[in-house]
């Protein structure tokens, strides 16, 4: 019995260094499926674009991409979950860059937008459209603005979260013209805002669904960007009506990994998803939504975010909405 106990102890001591060595070793990348969190609810431009991107990327990833919608907070919730996940390449997030720029400038968020995430790719540029029901009393933007002034803050506009590009654009319009007062109603994404509009719960909504516009289910009033859309040549843009372009920093679609992910894995993922973003199938998907096919690689995306973050405060102060909370939390930005 003593011999057996001695032999067991000797074996355990021999295995101890190996156990200590391997306990702290994490795999370079996950072997299982990749989970992609999409920051808005199903049906919107970001959701459709992210799903198309994921499907194309699966061809080279060698594993499935499981897409999960994580709406609320204008993208803040999806980013917060990402930064707390394991940095092994198995967890990614797709959001609009307002979640990394505007919202952290105005809110207390549980992440630093430049330190806690690793940009992999910018894969689109949103140009949301202000829409209403086809049977609405206003058929043009001028009609809608006249009704806004007449009803003095009673008209409701559905937006895909406070602090999203469409909300910023509309707030900038109101900042320039105090007679334009609206009640902003935040939703988990443009699809929810469109549903609320068709159900009569709001009077207008920010949308990106060109198919619904083409089918006559939604009536376009204005492109909430500095330039118009070739798909909607008769619809005015912000610039056409004398309003300022809110800038491109808040309205890009971006793919993120958590900070701490190994460099080799970041390179692998960015290469695969960049190839997917260049595919004909993915680009054809964008044509059905008000999204420009803007593509920035990993380094370009990181530089773009840094510059946009530095410029955001100046832009918000210039248009008079620097003190406006971006979501439902205390207005406090992370340490710069």
Q: How would you sum up this structure, described in words?
A:
The protein has 336 residues and is an alpha/beta fold. The chain folds into two domains: 34-126 and 248-319, D-Maltodextrin-Binding Protein, domain 2, CATH 3.40.190.150; 129-241, D-Maltodextrin-Binding Protein, domain 2, CATH 3.40.190.10. Helix content is 40%, strand content 17%. It has eleven helices and eleven strands. The strands form two sheets. A six-stranded mixed sheet has the order 2-1-3-10-4-11, with helices on both faces. Strands 7-6-8-5-9 form a five-stranded mixed sheet, with helices on one face. Helix 2 crosses helix 9 (263-277) and helix 2 packs antiparallel against helix 10 (280-286). The longest helix has 22 residues, at 2-23. The termini are far apart. Mean pLDDT is 84; it is low at 1-28 and 327-336.
What descriptors fit this protein?
alpha/beta, D-Maltodextrin-Binding Protein, domain 2, 2 domains, 11 strands
């Amino acid at each position: 019995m003593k011999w057996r106990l001695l032999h067991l102890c000797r074996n355990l001591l021999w295995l101890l260094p190996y156990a200590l060595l391997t306990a702290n070793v994490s795999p370079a990348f996950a072997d299982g499926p990749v989970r992609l969190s999409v920051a808005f609810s199903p049906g919107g431009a970001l959701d459709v674009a992210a799903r198309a991107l994921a499907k194309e990327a699966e061809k080279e990833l060698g594993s499935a991409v499981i897409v999960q919608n994580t709406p609320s907070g204008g993208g803040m919730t999806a980013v917060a979950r990402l930064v707390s996940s394991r940095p092994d390449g198995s967890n990614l997030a797709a959001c609009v860059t307002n979640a990394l720029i505007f919202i952290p400038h105005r809110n207390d968020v549980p992440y630093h937008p430049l330190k806690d995430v690793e940009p992999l790719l910018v894969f689109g540029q949103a140009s949301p459209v202000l829409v209403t029901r086809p049977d609405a009393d206003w058929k043009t933007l001028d009609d809608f603005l006249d009704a806004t002034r007449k009803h003095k803050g009673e008209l409701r506009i559905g937006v895909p979260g406070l602090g999203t590009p469409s909300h910023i654009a509309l707030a900038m319009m109101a900042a320039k013209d105090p007679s334009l007062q609206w009640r902003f109603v935040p939703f988990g994404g443009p699809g929810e805002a469109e549903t609320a509009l068709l159900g009569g719960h709001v009077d207008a909504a920010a949308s990106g669904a060109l198919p619904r516009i083409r089918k006559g289910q939604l009536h376009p009033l204005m492109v909430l960007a500095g330039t118009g859309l070739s798909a909607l040549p008769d619809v005015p843009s912000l610039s056409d009506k004398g309003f300022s372009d809110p800038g491109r920093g808040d309205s890009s679609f971006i793919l993120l990994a958590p900070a701490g992910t190994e460099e080799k894995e970041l390179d692998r993922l960015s290469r695969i998803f960049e190839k997917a973003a260049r595919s004909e199938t993915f680009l054809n998907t964008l044509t059905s939504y008000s999204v420009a096919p803007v593509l920035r690689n990993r380094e370009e995306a990181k530089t773009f975010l840094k510059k946009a973050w530095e410029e955001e405060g100046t832009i918000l102060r210039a248009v008079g909405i620097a003190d406006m909370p971006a979501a439902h939390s205390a207005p406090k930005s992370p340490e710069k």
